[in-house]
Amino acid sequence: MSWDLIRVVAILFVMAGHLTGLASTLPGIEPYPVQVVVPFGTITLLVLSGYFVGPTRRRGAAGRWFRARLARLLPAYLVAVLAVYTITRAVVVPFNGWQHRDGVLGFLFGDPVRPAGPVADAPPAWHVPDLEDLLTHALLLHEWMPGTFIDGSYWTLPLQVTAFAAAAVLWRWKLHRVVGATTVLWVVLAASAGSVVLDMILPQLPTASGLYRAYLFAAGAAIWLWQQRRIPTIHLVFLLATAVVIQAFRSGGPAVAVVVCFTVMLVGMCLAARGRDWDFPVLRWLRRPVGWLAGISYCLYLVHQQLGYVLTRALVEAGVTPWWLRLAVVVAAAVVAAWLLTVLVERPAHRALTRPRAAGGAREDAARTVPVGGAP
Predict the structure, then answer these.
(1) Fewest beta carbons within 10 Å, which of 207, 223, 287, 314?
(2) Alpha-carbon distance 258 to 272, whole Å?
(3) What separation in angstroms does the CA of 243 have from each of 159, 170, 256?
């Protein structure tokens, strides 16, 4: 089994759910005759992020490891946030029949104003992001402020940063050696399961802090510990089964399909952890294209949703009626945008920010994390 294949399957199901399912809930976009809405892709990517904490932390201090993870995540994310914000303000306002305030600053940061006439009586259908949306997303505070919105996929970024920070603290203080790694995992699972009670007392805290989804990172870490033969197979089964049960209570419709697919992906990760990469002959000819898609999967996660919705609506207004043609154009545009963001921003920024400061300095571990988006 291949880690790249797992990552690509997950991101393709994320895109399919957003572009064929959620897109049709927006005004001006007709429902697709074929909809693939089985939302297990993002949670799979979060498990992958939890797993790859292990392989990437073997060298260097905890602080340097954490900075390397931020160097992988944040530059591409910040560029994507600014791009989605600017394009959305330019295109969505006309969708709503609104007008911007005059001037460049008004276009970028001002509140749209409604024209006089019948259009003024129609409620806004598409959210028009403002300066508050931009700042909260740039500062990774948008999960603490649920009224802000730029892209529906960006809820995973604060979670990953929080999880990586927690892993760095755990590593720095060597808490896993004091109480045991498996004890830490069970505590995380229990706290995540019990976070629904905390939500009744302090609403928004479990989701914004990442506690609500922490069981996914614990599942990934458990697979890595099992791969290193630091926990027995039966213990891994109980840990992963607990994560699946928690997910069963967290899933919306179709809950059964989500749980089944999530379980299959967990089994696939276990096979990838202890098996040989691309061990199945039928998969070998897919190695290069799957590896290429896996390499841009993080940026694909960042650019496909909101920009895909905007492009779909623009194609509808341009008279592109065949649904399959619209979908093909949107997917192709997302892949091209993700490739450009990867080669122009993500990889150069990571190299620049993690370059050793001196010839004798410690080298950064070359292994990739898996930011969501799933999150390479």
Answers:
(1) 287
(2) 21
(3) 17, 21, 15
